[in-house]
Amino acid sequence: MNRLILVAGLATALMVAATSGHAETAPGQATAATRPSGTSVAVLGEPARVEVAFVLDTTGSMTGLIDGAKRKIWAIADEIRKTQPNAEIRIGLVAYRDRGDAYVTDKTELSTDIHAVYGKLLQFQAQGGGDWPESVNEALSVAVNGLGWTKAPDTRRLIFLVGDAPPHMDYVQDIPFTDTLKIAEREGIVVDALQAGNAPDTALAWKTIAQLGHGRYVQIPQSGGVVSIPSPFDDEIIQLQLRLHRTIVPYGSKKQQSEVRSKAAMAAAAPASAASDMASYGVRAGSAAARKVVTGEGDLVADVIAKRAEAAKVAREDLPAELQALSKPELEATIAAKSAERDHLQSELAAVVAKRDAFVAAERAKQPAAKDGFDRVVEDLVREQVK
User: Where in the cell is it found (predicted)?
Assistant: First the structure.
């Protein structure tokens, strides 16, 4: 695409931003816009729900950042949980590339099932691109209009746009991001823009998007700048997690049972730092999530604990094969034993996770350069904007 067309289109968007009362900021600075009077505002008080969508460029130049996101999605979810321990957390994804690639956008709906979101993120590989601008307009439109945001006023709604290339401004069928961000404003969705790398035309676009989205613009390293900190407690956490997985009893349809087993296998295969972040999130979410080991539906032990199900009333064909021959009293005793084992293991895990979290916090304080990484920036913005 002709760079002059791109710059001209972005300049027009900047003029729109200026006439809307959004001030331009100096390059390299995080920017925040003041919401004009008469428009939607962030919810005051404790939210019942926090919804976060990542709009992520998955073209070839984003390899390092995508790999970092895979390692740190649980740490980000854990930061949301720490900031709002009683809120329901829903996370979604919109991966985007460009026309002519394997896909233009690939969305994962907002969901409390963080394991499913993690699994989807693991599938993404950086490929495609090549002509520099990408389908940012379409990606933002899908994120704002297509993810099923909760309409209730006691909900915080955040979008993190992450990419290194500016939007195509020559696709006549596109909805311009300026129009999409008017809808985001009306719906109370804050849009932050994280620029990977330092391309000037991307900076121009991302600053405009952040201003119109009432969010912040932040520049992060092209690689993502994610730093994983190993701890002396990681191996113990992994072993406790593996023992916890043995307390899971998949039930329901064959598909649901398969999904539960897949989540447990995926968690077991996670690298040490991700596994520890996953454990930290699970411990913090323990009471709110009825002591779930994996998120989503299909674990009979979690459902019995939460009084969503009674073991004796589950149809034989909805039980895993190894439990179908048990009598009702035997099945209830098995579930009760697994529940007690889970309670013991999660208490033990909480103590180890607390030690690990303290160790990692101390090590992070020694690495000031890492504060510009993708995960640290998102965590900082979550603390600022969710509160």
Answer: Secreted
